[in-house]
Structure to design on (314 residues):
């Protein structure tokens, strides 16, 4: 009985192996073709990755972004070849399962690394849009400085105080970014006040003529001086002029020279830049000065005193 059971066992194994061998021999041509497809797509993926890398390195400032996109493209081409090979072998269910599994895994990774993924996508999007480049002066979310590096997850900005600020890409992608380098020019505003006794038009003309002599002023015909309003002790003016940015003269230096020049010009033309002045008015309706009120009180006091003496003598 035992020998019969063992014989049946070996017969079953033999039949199973034979069926596998027959199926293998039957599908051997398809397996060879599928293997050739995988090899061909592997070679194509490598060639396509190199071509894409060369194109992306010319298109992007960040080498990391270019390398990442070329690597993703390489993997996509290779996976496409694998799926075609599996489909050629008749493993349609396997392909569907792999795609579903990849989708679930990708979704899980996206939720687990949401912040990292958001910064990565923002970095790639900024690499395509190019709102700024390395060396540009930008301002965003309280950070003001020069862009030193653009990475996959963050951007490195060197502030004008000498510190390096590492800003996540999603912050730069979501919020307003001011790029001071794109247009190649920048406007400087200098507020100045003149006394109420001076002529506004005369002050405007002398300031304009003085600024137009400076080499760092890029648009002489757009030097403007506007009366901004009335201050406590002065008529407030706003001086506008343009400089090349970045240029031979920096923003701070140009503003310093402009303030110095405006001060010299107004002094030379006998136009006063007043300090705060306070006028004391003691009348309810205005116009009453302190010395007048004191004199009036003194006279009234003397009058009352004489009347009192007269009444006592009587």
């Amino acid at each position: 009985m035992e020998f019969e059971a063992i014989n049946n066992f070996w017969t079953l194994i033999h039949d199973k192996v034979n069926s596998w061998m027959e199926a293998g021999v039957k599908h051997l041509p398809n397996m060879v073709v599928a293997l050739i497809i995988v090899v061909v797509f592997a070679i194509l993926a490598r060639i396509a990755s190199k071509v894409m890398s060369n194109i992306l390195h010319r298109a992007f400032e960040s080498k990391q972004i270019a390398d990442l996109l070329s690597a993703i493209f390489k993997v996509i081409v290779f996976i496409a070849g694998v799926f075609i090979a599996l489909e050629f072998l008749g493993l349609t269910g396997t392909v569907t399962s792999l795609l579903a599994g990849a989708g679930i895994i990708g979704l899980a990774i996206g939720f687990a690394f949401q912040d990292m993924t958001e910064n990565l996508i923002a970095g790639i999007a900024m690499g395509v849009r190019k709102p700024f480049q390395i060396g540009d002066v930008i301002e965003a979310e309280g950070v003001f400085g020069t862009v030193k590096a653009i990475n996959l997850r963050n951007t490195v900005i060197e502030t004008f105080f000498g510190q390096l600020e590492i800003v996540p890409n999603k912050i730069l992608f979501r919020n307003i970014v001011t790029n001071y380098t794109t247009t190649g020019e920048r406007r400087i505003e200098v507020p100045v006040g003149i006394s109420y006794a001076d002529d506004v038009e005369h002050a405007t003309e002398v300031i304009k003529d003085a600024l137009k002599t400076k080499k760092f002023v890029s648009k002489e015909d757009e030097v403007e001086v506007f009366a901004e309003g009335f201050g406590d002790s002065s008529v407030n003016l706003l001086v506008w002029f343009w400089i090349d940015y970045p240029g031979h003269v920096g923003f701070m230096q140009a503003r310093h020279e402009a303030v110095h020049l405006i001060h010299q010009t107004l002094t030379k033309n006998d136009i006063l830049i007043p300090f705060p002045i306070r006028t004391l008015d003691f009348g309810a309706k205005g116009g009453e000065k302190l010395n007048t009120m004191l004199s009036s009180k003194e006279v009234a006091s003397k009058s009352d005193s004489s009347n009192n003496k007269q009444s006592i003598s009587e």
